[in-house]
Amino acid sequence: MDDLKKVYSALEGLKKQGVYIGIPIKLLLFTGLRNQAITKLKVGNINWEEGLIIYNQKVRNSKNKMQVLPLPPLLMQELRKHVEEMKLNDDDPLSYGIKGYPLKNKQLNAVVNKVNEFLDWKGEERVTPHGFRYTIATLLNEQGLSVETIKYLLGHSSGANVDLYLRRHERKIKQIKEELTKIELELEQSVTEEKGDFPSIDHEEMGKRGGNHLLTGLPFSENFILELSKSNPKLLEKLMIEHYKHQNI
Question: Which of 9, 61, 65, 118 fits as disulfide partner to 156, beta carbons 3.0 to 4.6 Å?
Answer without folding.
Answer: 65
